Amino acid sequence: MTTPARAIELDLSSGRIRAHRFGPDDGKLTLCVHGLSANSRSYDYLGPELAAHGRSVVAIDLRGRGWSAITRLGTYGWSNHARDVLAVATALGAERFEYVGHSMGAFIGLELARQAPSRVERSVLIDAIGIPEPASLIPIVAAVQRLGSVHPDADAYVRAVRNLGIITPWGPVWEDHYRYDLVPTTGGVRPRTDRGAVYEDMSYAATQVPRAFWPDLTMPTLLVRAGIPLGAGYIVSAGDREDYLRRVPRSQAVDIDANHYGVMTHPATAAAIRSFLP
Predict the structure, then answer these.
(1) Burial group, residue 16, by CB count within 10 angstroms (0-12, 13-18, 19+)
(2) How many CB atoms lie within 10 A of CB 187?
(3) C-alpha to C-alpha distance for 201 and 71, rounded to whole angstroms
(4) Can you tell me whether residue 161 is helix, strand or coil?
(5) What is the chain's pLDDT, residue by residue, as a tens digit (278 residues)?
(6) Which one, of 186, 187, 192, 185, lies nearest residue 147 by Cα?
(7) Pairing state of beta strands 29-33 and 15-22?
(8) CB-based contact 177:191 (threshold 8 Å)
């Protein structure tokens, strides 16, 4: 039976955080973080799959996304988001926790390994570990451009996102994910996710060298790589995959027959993560 998500609100020093919990309150904590312009509902498939084994799975809306606080510019970036993740774990009473991050969430996982390696028991990095192939970024930019746009109604907005053709297969998880983010505005609806926050994180990422974080991955780490390119390129190149396995001592990797978005709703992704987490 599917585990329903329960919304929780957490007041951090950096701002209010909305999250969704799957599974029991007292299970081993697994914190899940979404991608650049996504939100916690991108874990509506993986969350119940992991919670079915007794975990307390908590998926976070990062600040500036979903229904978490939109804070001033200058407060975003991987390092600040990582501090929020640590504060969420503390607020939930967990000194140590498991971590699952998709896309930018995986880069935040690298930053967590740098900031507080003793607190992360195991880390799952979903389709991000190094610098993406340039062609793969074109669809990412196209997805970000929806922010700030006004559509007549929720159906029109979801149809516009689906018509981008980058989320395959499309299904209920993505339908709910994009509807969740909408707020009414003059002329219809618009995404609540803040364009300024997303652009700041894009600019921040351009200044980072992800490989420089790899030595900090001292905990067991699983790379889940999308085996189907996004557009004409891979977010994780074959070379980065092999270098990661060679240079990160406690690392594993699995390729999934899906693209950067489809990997989040693929049964093989859930199976690989369940196998990796004790």
Answers:
(1) middle
(2) 9
(3) 13
(4) helix
(5) 455 799 999 999 999 999 999 999 999 999 999 999 999 999 999 999 999 989 999 999 999 999 999 999 999 999 999 999 999 999 999 999 999 999 999 999 999 999 999 999 999 999 999 999 999 999 999 999 999 999 999 999 999 999 999 999 999 999 999 999 999 999 999 999 999 999 999 999 999 999 999 999 999 999 999 999 999 999 999 999 999 999 999 999 999 999 999 999 999 999 999 999 98
(6) 192
(7) unpaired
(8) no
Q: Where are the domains of the chain?
A: 6-276
Please, are residues 39 and 106 in contact by the beta-carbon 8 Å criterion? no
Q: Which of 256, 268, 259, 200 is nearest to 234 (CA)?
A: 259
- Write out the two tokens for 264: 């989040």
- CA dist 32 and 60 (Å) reads 6
The letter for the amino acid at 174 is W
Can you tell me the distance from the alpha carbon of 220 to that of 27, in angstroms, rounded to the nearest whole number?
Answer: 20
Return the closest-CA partner of residue 226 out of 178, 260, 202.
Answer: 260
Sign of the C-alpha dihedral computed for residues 222, 59, 4 and 194 taken in this order = negative
Q: 131: which 2 tokens?
A: 């610098």
- Name the amino acid, one letter, at 1: M
What fold does the segment set 6-276 form as a domain? Answer: Rossmann fold (3.40.50)
